[in-house]
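wait is this the right file?? whatever heres the structure
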C-alpha cells in the first residue's frame, strides 16, 4: 500500500511538491511557442511609448549620443584619461548599464502593470517576461546605433571579436528572464521591493566600473568580481571595444547567471499560482 501511495496517490506530499515546478516548466514552454506574439507585443510597446513622436525610438539614439558627448570630455579630464580611449569606453558602458538597469526597473512592475490581463486572460506568465526582455533588446539596438560613428571617429575597430557579444547577450537573456520573473512576483506581493531595487541600482552604478575603469583600483580590483553587475557588464563591453573578455569574467558571469536562474525558478514556481490574487 505504501508503494501505491507514493506512485499514484494524488495527495502524496512528493506529488504536490513537484507540481509547481511542472506547471512552471509548462508555462515557459508555452511561452516559447508564442514567441511571435511576444515579439509583436514588445514592438507594439516600443511604438506606443513614442506614439506621435517624429523620431520615435530613435530618440534613444539621440539621447544616448548627447549624454556621451556631454560627459565624455568632462570625465576624461577629471579622471586624467585620454579621450580617444575613454570616450568609447564610457559610451559602451553607459549604454549597456542603462539597458541592464532599465530591464531590472521594468521587471518590478512586470505583473502589476498587466493586472487586468492576468485576471481576465489565460496567458502563460512567461509571455510577459519575454515581452519585457525583447522590448529591452529593441531599445538597446537603437541606442547602440551611436557606436559606429563614434568608433570611426576614434579609430576603434571591434573586428571579429564582436562575435563574442552573441553569447554575452544570451547570458543576459537567461539572467534577465529569471530576474524578471522573480522580481515581478516578489514586487506583486511585497511593494517595498521596488524601491529597494531602485536604491540598489543607484548604489550599483557607483560601485560598478561604468564611469571609471577596473584597473584604477589596482590590487583591489579582484573584489569587483563579487559585484554581480561587473561580470555581466564586462562580457558584453569587451567585445564591443574589440577586446576579448577575460576568463574570470566569463566564469563569474556564468556563476551569476546560474545563481540568478536558480533563484528565479524557485520564486516563480512557488508564487506563480498566487499572482492573480497579488496583482
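ok assuming it is, sequence goes like this
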Amino acid at each position: 500500500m505504501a508503494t501505491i501511495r507514493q506512485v499514484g496517490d494524488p495527495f502524496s506530499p512528493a506529488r504536490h511538491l513537484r507540481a509547481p515546478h511542472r506547471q512552471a516548466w509548462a508555462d515557459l514552454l508555452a511561452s516559447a511557442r508564442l514567441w511571435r506574439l511576444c515579439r509583436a507585443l514588445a514592438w507594439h510597446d516600443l511604438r506606443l511609448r513614442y506614439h506621435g513622436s517624429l523620431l520615435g525610438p530613435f530618440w534613444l539614439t539621440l539621447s544616448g549620443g548627447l549624454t556621451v558627448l556631454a560627459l565624455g570630455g568632462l570625465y576624461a579630464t577629471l579622471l586624467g584619461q585620454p579621450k580617444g580611449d575613454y570616450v568609447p569606453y564610457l559610451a559602451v558602458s553607459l549604454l549597456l548599464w542603462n539597458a541592464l538597469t532599465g530591464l531590472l526597473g521594468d521587471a518590478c512592475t512586470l505583473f502589476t502593470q498587466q493586472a487586468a490581463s492576468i485576471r481576465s486572460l489565460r496567458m502563460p506568465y512567461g509571455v510577459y517576461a519575454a515581452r519585457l526582455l525583447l522590448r529591452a533588446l529593441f531599445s538597446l539596438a537603437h541606442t547602440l546605433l551611436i557606436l559606429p560613428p563614434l568608433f570611426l571617429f576614434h579609430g576603434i575597430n571591434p573586428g571579429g571579436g564582436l562575435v563574442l557579444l552573441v553569447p554575452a547577450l544570451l547570458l543576459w537573456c537567461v539572467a534577465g528572464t529569471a530576474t524578471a520573473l522573480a522580481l515581478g512576483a516578489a514586487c506583486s506581493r511585497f511593494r517595498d521591493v521596488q524601491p529597494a531595487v531602485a536604491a540598489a541600482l543607484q548604489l550599483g552604478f557607483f560601485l560598478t566600473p561604468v564611469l571609471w575603469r577596473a584597473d584604477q583600483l589596482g590590487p583591489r580590483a579582484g573584489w569587483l568580481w563579487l559585484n554581480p553587475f561587473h561580470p555581466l557588464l564586462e562580457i558584453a563591453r569587451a567585445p564591443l571595444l574589440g577586446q576579448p573578455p577575460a576568463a574570470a569574467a566569463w566564469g563569474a558571469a556564468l556563476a551569476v547567471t546560474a545563481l540568478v536562474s536558480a533563484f528565479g525558478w524557485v520564486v516563480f514556481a512557488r508564487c506563480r499560482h498566487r499572482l492573480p490574487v497579488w496583482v
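The longest helix spans residues 83-107. so i think its the right one actually
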